[in-house]
Design goal:
- 25% of the residues lie in helices and 18% in strands.
- The protein has seven helices and ten strands.
- The protein starts with 12 loop residues before the first helix and ends with a helix.
- The structure holds succinic acid and manganese (II) ion (MN).
- The site of succinic acid has 7 residues, from strand 9 and strand 10.
């Protein structure tokens, strides 16, 4: 079936209400297959560039048990196609509408590969606690959008969300130290399968009992926006199908701390606070 390209640039009042109630919204078939192919090729190229030494990509994280790539961080700073993607109207205009702020920057850009057979778990967590403690982000105003580069099914480790859990606010968690990262740079502890701020299990169980659990399945090219206090996780991928997603986090310029001491590396928490402007659609193609 031919992918539809909706070029969505506005959410309906009902979609905004749903977002506010649930803390997430899935919009299907936003990107064309040829756009997805270009993005996929750029992902592959970045790995080749790094392996050949053409580029030194510092934000690459490997899976602990398999050595396959788990995450590529900060590629929007290295490749024009990913910089352009951040300004795609269907992402940026919707993010502006959800956050109610037209002056946004990209706080974080990452690609989670969750490769066939080897992609590992993401433990239960909320994102904002990392940005509060790691980057000094004053308020939980940031939102993320996942762009599905592969079909997401029940088999390849879909993102699990607790609808409405963003209303719990930010759960304070003491930092956990993973034994496996002792000889690694400190930023690693935020991104490996053993997370620094995992949500307490009893609290997750209680939230799911009260609010339920969803794992949105959708074809590649769909996008999923979610709140920075959303409780989320994903299981490992034992299927032969990779589950690659691009995650872009938008934050208002006014909600960044440019003077934060000990900022994390730029590829993990961007410090370019210039407001993003949308590209025209043709530019991206
Ligand atoms: C994340 O929480 O940042 C990623 C989760 C996933 O890729 O499943
Ligand atoms: Mn997360």
């Amino acid at each position: 079936m031919m992918a539809k390209n909706l070029l969505v640039t506005k959410l309906t009042p009902q979609q905004l209400i749903d977002y506010s109630d649930n803390g997430f919204i899935l919009i299907e078939d936003v990107f064309l297959h040829k756009e997805l192919d270009m993005l996929s090729q750029a992902v592959t190229q970045s790995i080749v560039d790094n392996e050949s030494g053409t580029k030194h990509l510092r934000g690459i994280v490997a899976e602990e048990n398999h050595g396959t790539i788990r995450t590529l961080n900060g590629l929007h700073l290295e490749y024009e196609i990913f910089a352009q993607l951040c300004c795609h109207p269907s992402l940026l205009l919707l993010a502006q509408q959800i956050i109610c702020d037209n002056n946004l920057y990209v706080h974080q850009f990452k690609i989670n590969l969750k490769e066939a057979f080897t992609g590992d778990v993401w433990e239960w967590h909320q994102d904002y606690i990392y940005w509060l403690k790691g980057d000094g982000m004053p308020k939980p105003k940031a939102i993320s959008v996942a762009i599905l580069l592969d079909d997401v099914t029940e088999f390849n480790g879909p993102l699990m969300l607790v609808p409405g859990s963003h209303k719990l606010g930010t759960i304070d968690v003491l930092p956990q130290q993973s034994a496996n990262i002792v000889n690694q740079p400190s930023w690693m502890s935020n991104v490996t399968a053993k997370l620094k701020y995992p949500a307490p299990k009893e609290l997750v169980a209680e939230a799911i009992k009260e609010r339920g659990l969803v794992a949105p399945k959708a074809s590649r090219g769909s996008i999923l926006f979610f709140d920075c206090n959303m409780l989320h996780a994903s299981t490992c991928n034992l299927s032969p199908f990779s589950r690659r997603i691009i995650l872009i986090t938008y934050n208002p310029i006014t909600n960044a701390d440019p003077h934060f001491t000990h900022p994390r590396p730029n590829f993990l928490a961007s410090r370019d606070f210039t407001p993003l402007a949308t590209t025209t659609y043709n530019n991206f193609l």
